[in-house]
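cache lookup: miss for this entity combination. No prior model stored, computing from scratch. Input as submitted by user K.M.:
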Amino acid sequence: MSATRRSGLLDEQTQAAQRREDRRRFIKLAAAGTTIAALGGYYFLAPDEQTKAARRERLPDGRARLPPGQKVIEQLKPMGGSRGDIRKSAFRLRVHGAVDAPFEIDFTELLSLPQVELDLDVHCVTGWSRLGARWQGVRLAELAARAQVRPTARHVILEAAHGYTANVPLDDALADDSLVAHRYEGESLASQNGAPARALIPHLYFWKSAKWLEGVRFVERDEPGFWEVRGYHNRADPWLEQRYG
Ligand SMILES: Nc1nc2c(c(=O)[nH]1)N[C@H]1C(S)=C(S)[C@@H](COP(=O)(O)O)O[C@H]1N2
Ligand SMILES: [Mo]
């Protein structure tokens, strides 16, 4: 089950089949009065029960689904930030830097690129995690391929409105679950969550997921971002509790 959520490799059909299977198992377990530990987004458990269950659940590589020091909450907590222009009509995304074919796209063009829908877990450094929410967007890897990233590129700078940036190693940016996301739980991204599109690097602490995204810049030399220059960790792996630098 974890594989379904965590891996961008499964196609839509496989994911839908997996969800049907989850429901069947839930009904069976519920009928038998079993404690339910590892199903979907745990929607039928109270948050503290979800936290316990997610600590027990294992990802395919053996790590606990819930990173240390995190608690499950049921919705994204609005964490603020300097809001950009939230109109889809105003959206422009620049893909540039150490690339041979830089380009800029508007919102319609973003939608015309291959879309993925993934159930993902996000982890905020302040201690909350939102598990198994459905996100839709375009893989950063897709944008990288289109821009013909040079082999010398090593990092990606996610550029947001009003100068907010987050730096991520190239490998993290090109991971299957790293997106430019524009839908959350079946709806257009809400203003406070970064409308019309945000970066989403779910396997790193959530501050790396720049809201109100304006640019994706590939660089050879690293450039610590907004929080990274303020003492937060440069890589931000939640399972290693890389909170502060
Ligand atoms: N542009 C921008 N993006 C941002 C931030 C910000 O202040 N500005 N805050 C980050 C932090 S610290 C977190 S925890 C998440 C919060 O996302 P949410 O408000 O959608 O929950 O966005 C990240 N992306
Ligand atoms: Mo955060």
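stored under new cache key. The pocket of molybdenum atom (ligand 2) is lined by residues 79, 124-126, 206-207 (CB under 6 Å).
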